[in-house]
């Protein structure tokens, strides 16, 4: 009966996690999946989250269904973080926001909404991008194309090609953008480049869809949202998917949000209704636990402040690892440029290693990174960084 069902080879990044778990090498290092581990190689529970969890647990309360759009405090948390607490666009009630099942859920609901209301739209993603962007949009029935982004030769953005490509797109085509900490390259646009790109988006009446999964890991909470706020200032319609997986270290709770910035309050209400209907048809309503944690941490002034400090602590540790790896590699592999390690932002570094070199790191050293050469810098720590640097130097020699 099911013999016609195709074999699923598994997700390349999640598959790496399983391979890593099964590796008996005592020195193994996981630089594959985009997860932040602390200096002791432990997935942290943030202090602000612990406090929120204690409040939720005492007294233990009933668990009714949440509304389709999630908790009001969760939705407000997304809006304040993305657009700024006092943003005019929020006062004007022009943003329809729902709580979602992680950033992935936000992308899925957004893609379904686009397919329903803009059926002619194609979606363009950066080359390269996080692989699941393509799967999610195609899974919603949308044709996906790629726009030029990363220049392997220089390790920078092919900005002129990018602009020229956007100038060929049609009205209502969707462009999926990474406001900060580009996944997988770590290479971001400058603010001046955002200004120029968004002008083209505006002129050609494209639909920007900004996916922000690492807010706070780049420069700071506000600078990382520059592109989002600029698009709003320009009066663009805008989709934003955001994830709290990384910046609240709440991966398994699946917390995120989808916001759609509309020209008027009346349109925002219509869009909000359709987003709720989209949710109703897929999973009816989001789970409550993670939403309550988001609500408590983000809307309590003291906890919010503590949270920002904790995110910046993670950000700074990653930056320190970048610096250290760069300096060790520079001494071990003279003549090769490792500046990319400190110019790239966020959790990831595109190392430029060949697939063969990445494979050697895995089989000979138990060091796991994605075959496109993406390394999760947040998997490095004081105990493994020399081992990783030596291994990288070794495979780069031949
Ligand atoms: N967008 C990007 C760019 C991501 O890197 C990720 C997570 N790897 C997501 C979205 C999805 O986030 P979540 O895990 O919250 O679904």
From TrEMBL:
GO terms of molecular function: identical protein binding; L-tyrosine-2-oxoglutarate transaminase activity; pyridoxal phosphate binding
Record keyword Transferase present: yes
UniProt cross-references to PROSITE patterns, sorted A to Z: AA_TRANSFER_CLASS_1 (PS00105)
EC number per UniProt: 2.6.1.-
Superkingdom as given in the UniProt entry: Bacteria
Residue ranges of every copy of the Aminotransferase class I/classII large domain listed in the record: 27-391
Keywords carried by this UniProt record: Aminotransferase, Pyridoxal phosphate, Transferase
GO cellular component, one term: cytosol
The keyword Transferase belongs to this UniProt entry's keyword annotation: yes
A Gene Ontology biological process term: L-phenylalanine biosynthetic process from chorismate via phenylpyruvate
Family under the similarity heading: Belongs to the class-I pyridoxal-phosphate-dependent aminotransferase family.
PANTHER family per the UniProt record, alphabetical: AROMATIC-AMINO-ACID AMINOTRANSFERASE, ASPARTATE AMINOTRANSFERASE
Official protein name in the record: Aminotransferase
